[in-house]
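Lab notebook: predicted structure, single chain.

Context: the supervisor wants predicted structures on file for every construct in the current expression panel, including those that have not yet been purified. This is the next one on the list. No modifications to the sequence; it matches the entry in the shared construct table.
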Amino acid sequence: MSDTPTLDRFLSHALALIGGPGSGPLVTLGTLGPDGPRLRSVMLRRYTPAMAEAEIHTDRGSDKVAEIAADPRVSLHLWDSQALVQLRLSGRAHLIHADTARWTEVPDNSRTSYGKAPPPGRPIDGPDAFALDTDVAHFTAVRIVLSRADVLHLDPDRHRRALYRRTEGGWQGHWVSP
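Prediction complete. Output recorded below exactly as produced.
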């Protein structure tokens, strides 16, 4: 994107990097924990541009579920090294527990990610000292309604950056110094 883009095209180009329905890229999810910001890599499972919604999946017993329940403000971060674009998205997360329709979309080999005893992040006696209990009861979808986007393009000729807010009329943005 070395020519001078419009604000709309700049955002559209960045959002296209996260894809549409189906599994998308690996992104970083930011939540607020009791000890401050918490970051982890997650697979973006769904992005719906018309609704400005993103979705990830997790184990119901994970720390991120408790963190989101306590404070639903979250951020997503994506770096695309080929496009030289950093995309930071913020919004409010909504927890959807044990949704059987979503569960049927999860491939069998991925279901082992949901349902561990003890739950993820709890101390165990050794690397294999946990049991699998793959059941929809342990599955949580996290739907994120996006409200803010920060797009930075590290063009070798000229860096560009824009900030956007989601309004009832769509995304409204302005250029900022990169």
